[in-house]
Amino acid sequence: MLGVRLDTELEERLAAVARTQGRSKSDIAREAVRRYVDLHDDAYRREARRQSTRASARASVEGVVFWQDGAAWR
User: Fold this and answer.
1) What is the rounded CA–CA span in Å between residue 43 and residue 59?
2) Which residues lie below 8 Å from residue 59, measured CB to CB, with a gap of 6+?
3) Considering only CA atoms, which of 4, 29, 2 is closest in space to residue 15?
4) Cα distance between residue 46 and residue 31, in whole Å
5) Are 25 and 15 in contact (CB under 8 A)?
6) Cα dihedral across residues 16, 22, 27, 32: positive or negative
7) Which of 6, 35, 55, 62 pairs as cysteine with 11 (C-beta 3.0–4.6 A)?
8) Alpha carbon distance 28, 11 (integer Å)
9) Is the dihedral of CA 38, 40, 43, 45 positive or negative?
10) pLDDT in tens, 16-45
């Protein structure tokens, strides 16, 4: 359960949209939050995957250099 406070203007606009569409304010708010979370969750996952791939590629390159340098010390 989540309670959200809206300023008067936004609540009036939400109520008008709800009346026009024959839906409840809660239904419209739930859909809006779901879309927002989906959009940002997907973006977060894409960025995390991109950074992970980049770090993985960098680590393997650094690992090769490390072992080559380590061999030079012997």
Assistant:
1) 24
2) none
3) 29
4) 22
5) yes
6) negative
7) 6
8) 12
9) negative
10) 999 999 999 999 999 999 999 988 888 778
27: amino acid identity, one letter: D
Between CA 17 and CA 24 the distance in angstroms is: 9
Q: What does the DSSP assignment read for 19-72?
A: HHHT--HHHHHHHHHHHHHHHHHHHHHHHHHHHHHHHHHHHHHHHHHHHHHHHH
Is a pLDDT exceeding 80 seen at residue 62? no
What is residue 7's three-state secondary structure? coil
Find tokens 């992970």 and name the residue: 52
Confidence band of 66 (pLDDT split at 50, 70, 90): low
The total number of residues shown for the chain amounts to 74
d(C-alpha 35, C-alpha 57), whole Å:
33
Angle at 24 between CA 22 and CA 29, to 5 degrees: 125
